[in-house]
Amino acid sequence: YTWPNPQLDELESQRYDRHGYNSRALSAGVSPCKNFLFGDTAGRANAADWIRTAYHDMATHNIVDGTGGLDASIRFEEDRAENAGDGFHLTLLVLTGESNRYASLADVLALGAITAIEQCGGPKISFRGGRVDATVANNPGVPEPQQDLASHIAAFTRQGFTKSEMIGLVACGHTFGGVQHDPFPNIVPESNDPNNTSGNVRFDSTFVTFDNKIATEFLDGTTGNPLVVGPEETNSDKRIFASDGNVTMSSFADAAVFASTCADLFARMLDTVPRGVQLSEVIEPLPVKPQGVYLLLLEDGSIQLNGEVRFWNTSENPNRKIQIKWKDRNGNPCDGCSKAIGHTIDQVSTFVANNEETTSVWYSFNQSATEFVTFDQHSSISKFWFEVDEGSGAQVADQNGASFEIQDVVMLADSSCRITSNLTLDIAIRKDVIPSRVYLKADDFANLAPFMRTIDVPPPASTSGGDSYNIWSISDTSLNRGWTIAVDVGDKTYETAYLQHHVFGTCS
Ligand code: HEM
């Protein structure tokens, strides 16, 4: 995709910015893989809960009528017997906080599962974005261990999976985690282990690692999987795994076959959404990605460009020099529209999948850079790009000629300020446009899922702000999550970058 695309930019960041500089929160929840944020560390793991939650959320899908699928409806379904245990509740507690207007809770549930799998030894999984959060529960239909094989085959057929895909998906899921005593006392006896108060009995000997031991231990008879060696009535894994004469499970003795089969099945599981929901293309990392880019109208009348840029799959090079270059408001090249941008050795991040690490380096054109990028408000900016010199001549990084576009119709003025939670926003709007509406778009939450409110900004009593801009002002105490400022002009909407952590001075 082409930057800027606020939704895909945000999903790309949550998907790929895992460790180190500018890392997002999901990976911390499963680092290390045995991490469990709610006490009892030996028996449970967030990684297992996040994967199980994604499956149970999806498992209501009906391929015939198109209802159900990965849509975060699990939050209305937690009290059903088929959703026994507190894993869903605990998962939602963590993952809700990562959702926002661009990343639905359902997208974050998918990302949580992908992060857990990829980071804990699993293969890279294709991720598409655009899931829509349900507002009510779906029909029940998550398989339960005491049900017979015929009903499990029927349940997976309804979800869109064949019998061998059912065997695969159960094995891929059950390479993580286990069964706890509390929700399943008939399957797992009470535990006296002070380190494992949930009494969790694991599906395989490596319960926080993606590997094919779920299959090899089943095949060689050493498995302790409580859904294989437990009471016959609830041995659903035993019935499922053996349902094709062990053909599928035997193929998983080859670790590469297991990994590639699981990569496909997990991706299909996560892409199972209610009919009518349109998912994006598979989101790949942008090779050169600006982030947090915004314009600020300063009190001296100049405009400041703030932001950072990530160079994917790149390592440190002390000889590297990077320039940001830009064109003026009218798309014309301009003298002096070029500046060296800054980097320090802590501006490095990493991403893990397939047991391989990818390194990225970041450069800044903001407070942490040596100097700000500023320009005159009359000439302003319309697009920018980078020139990267690794020591052997400059290469252009401009999205294959498209450059990185930025609008200058609306931006925050530096005179904006705060008194505790009361923000006074001074909004600079270009004088040569006639806005039909100026409003804030503010993120909010209902039933653990994000939604957007709008707050209209009243027109200014008098005009000010220099030759090119008028200042509109509003005070608001409710902007405690992400927000943008939008301006409707004709049938176009201009919108600022998504502001969340902007630092305001205190109002005088
Ligand atoms: C017939 C189908 C299935 C049945 C009957 C089944 C049953 C169960 C049961 C009884 C538990 C124990 C839950 C607890 O004690 O908290 C469990 C855990 C788990 N299941 Fe399944 N499952 C099935 C399919 C799947 C699939 C398709 C996936 C994912 C692809 C999956 C992923 C998990 C994970 C990761 C756990 C571990 C949770 C933890 O340790 O907290 N399951 N399953």
Automatic annotation (TrEMBL):
Alphabetical keyword list: Heme, Iron, Metal-binding, Oxidoreductase, Peroxidase, Signal
Protein family per UniProt: Belongs to the peroxidase family. Cytochrome c peroxidase subfamily.
Output the GO biological process annotations, alphabetical, semicolon-separated: cellular response to oxidative stress; hydrogen peroxide catabolic process; response to reactive oxygen species
Q: What is this protein called?
A: Peroxidase
In its UniProt entry, the species of origin is given as Meripilus lineatus
GO MF annotations in UniProt: heme binding; metal ion binding; peroxidase activity
Question: Lineage in the entry?
Answer: Eukaryota, Fungi, Dikarya, Basidiomycota, Agaricomycotina
Domain (Plant heme peroxidase family profile) spans: 104-317
Tell me which SUPFAM superfamilies the record gives: Heme-dependent peroxidases (SSF48113)
Free-text function comment from the UniProt entry: Destroys radicals which are normally produced within the cells and which are toxic to biological systems.
The protein's matches in InterPro entries, at most eight in alphabetical order, are given as: Ccp1-like, Haem_peroxidase, Haem_peroxidase_sf, Peroxidase_I
State the source organism's domain of life.
Eukaryota
What Enzyme Commission number(s) appear in the record?
Answer: 1.11.1.-
Q: Known Gene3D superfamilies for this protein?
A: 1.10.520.10, Peroxidase, domain 2 (1.10.420.10)
